[in-house]
Design brief:
252 residues, alpha+beta, TATA-Binding Protein, 2 domains, two-stranded antiparallel ribbon, 13 strands, 30% strand, disordered N terminus, TBP_dom_sf, transcription, Transcription factor TFIID, DNA binding, TBP
Length: 252
């Protein structure tokens, strides 16, 4: 196996040299939470009667729910329709199939006489994914080399790392730099980065005053959970960034 250099410096005093694992680390998305607006008000009892495979109990939840199967991914997307026209989807295994499920609701509304119905303001709020590193990870070593982690094995066996996606595009970014950016956003001190935020090449990285922050939950077994992402590009960037730290923490 060939050694590769991590492009992110300053983590433990020098550039890390790591060996690529034989098994590639693949991002497996298992849930996408997204929303949109139809532009029309929806009578929920009518919606329940006219849309197949739906459920509505106003005492339980203020929305009617419809299960939309996706034949390409063999997943089922649950769409919640609200009376103000907002629709929300969860359960999709890709952004594309999630968006297509919302489009199906809009097409059905139009076929039922709501000619003004459109898919408006589509937004992805959370993408959840899992990764198999392919090897066990010594979480104590990872804590030592990354430092800025949340790890209390007495309470939770997983080690958590929060990563602001936008700042991974800074040349030479490292854990200390990323932690400073997290704290700056947490306490509202972001004026120095205002220009960068406004020029973000992916709107998901910075939306409504909030940056995209991905939380990694890393387990000894090598299984890694990802949550909080708003774009597949962002999740891939996080994986690319954290990979050298995982390999260096490999239990041998």
């Amino acid at each position: 196996m060939e050694a590769s250099r991590c492009e992110f410096e300053g983590d433990i005093g020098s550039v890390m040299e790591v060996e690529e694992p034989e098994q590639p680390m693949v991002l497996n998305i298992y849930n996408v939470l997204a929303s949109a607006n139809t532009g029309v008000n929806i009578d929920l009892p009518w919606f329940t009667e006219n849309f197949g495979n739906t459920y509505y109990d106003p005492q339980e939840f203020p929305a009617a729910r419809a299960d939309i199967p996706d034949k390409h991914t063999k997943s089922v997307v649950t769409v919640s329709a609200f009376s103000n026209g907002k629709i929300q989807a969860t359960g999709g295994v890709s952004v594309e199939c999630t968006k297509n499920s919302l489009k199906k609701i809009v097409r059905k509304l139009r076929s039922k006489g709501f000619e003004k119905a459109k898919l408006l303001s589509f937004e992805v709020h959370n993408i959840q994914a899992v990764i198999d590193a392919g090897f066990p990870i010594d979480l104590r070593v990872l804590r030592e080399i990354y430092v800025f982690v949340d790890y209390e094995p007495e309470r939770n066996p997983g080690l958590r790392i929060r990563i602001p996606v936008l700042y991974l595009y800074n040349q030479g970014c490292n854990p200390e730099f990323l932690q400073r950016q997290l704290l700056a956003h947490q306490y509202g001190n972001v004026n120095q980065n205002k220009g960068r935020l406004e020029r973000a090449n992916n709107p998901a990285f910075f939306r409504n005053g909030k940056i995209e922050i991905v939380t990694l939950t890393i387990h000894f077994s090598g299984k890694i959970g990802m949550a909080g992402g708003r774009s597949v590009e962002g999740l891939q960037k996080v994986l690319e960034y954290i990979k050298p730290y995982l390999i260096r923490s490999r239990l041998v």
